[in-house]
């Protein structure tokens, strides 16, 4: 199963991975299927097995962030306190993904807090990488605006 290959779960104790695997559901979704909308109750964490999703972020302007690598995680809002998705998610292609129920995963973390903390720290690394990518995109756009207004 893809959770063994996902950065999020690498090196996690076998017993914990086994319990997590038991609550995973491999699901298939057709292209253009909306998995969740911004503001929805964040009930699931997802891991891409095959295919791609677009995360749509709207706040006056729009940003689309594509995820397509096997093992990439989305729906991370299910693991933070607000418990609401911060973006909309639409399948960019047909998708096979692992769906993990937030409440069941949290029960496992309560039994194995050290492993849960490792996973949450890795998830923070995912946030950080995406924020840095968004900053780079924003700065690139500002450079283009500056160059076009000068020239």
Outline the structure in words.
This protein has helices spanning 14-23, 102-111, 113-150; strands at 24-29, 34-36, 44-50, 53-59, 61-67, 73-74, 88-91, 95-101. Helix 2 (102-111) crosses helix 3 (113-150). It has 151 residues and is α+β, with helices and mostly antiparallel strands. It is globular, with a radius of gyration of 17 Å. The mean pLDDT is 89. A hairpin with a 1-residue loop joins strand 4 (53-59) and strand 5. The protein starts with 13 loop residues before the first helix and ends with a helix. The chain has three helices and eight strands. The protein has one domain (2-150): Jelly Rolls (Sandwich). The strands form two sheets. A four-stranded antiparallel beta sheet has the order 1-8-3-6. Strands 2-7-4-5 form a four-stranded antiparallel beta sheet, with no helix packed on it.
CATH topology: Jelly Rolls
SSE ordering: HEEEEEEEEHH
Compute the gyration radius: what is it?
17 Å
Q: Specify the number of helices.
A: 3
Query: Major beta sheet, specifics?
Result: 4 strands, antiparallel
**Which spans have pLDDT < 50 for at least 5 consecutive residues?**
none
């Amino acid at each position: 199963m893809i959770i063994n290959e996902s950065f999020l779960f690498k090196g996690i104790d076998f017993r914990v991975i086994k319990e997590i695997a038991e609550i995973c559901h491999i699901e298939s979704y057709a292209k253009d299927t909306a998995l969740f909308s911004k503001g929805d109750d964040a009930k699931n964490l997802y891991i891409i097995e095959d295919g791609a999703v677009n995360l749509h972020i709207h706040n006056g302007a729009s940003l689309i962030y594509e995820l397509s690598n096997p093992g990439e995680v989305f729906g991370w809002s299910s693991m933070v306190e607000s418990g609401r998705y911060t973006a909309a998610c639409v399948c960019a292609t047909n998708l096979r993904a692992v769906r993990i129920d937030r409440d069941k995963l949290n029960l496992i973390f309560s039994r194995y807090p050290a492993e849960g903390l490792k996973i949450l720290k890795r998830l923070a690394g995912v946030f950080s990488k995406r924020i840095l990518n968004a900053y780079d995109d924003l700065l690139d756009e500002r450079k283009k605006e500056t160059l076009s207004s000068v020239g």
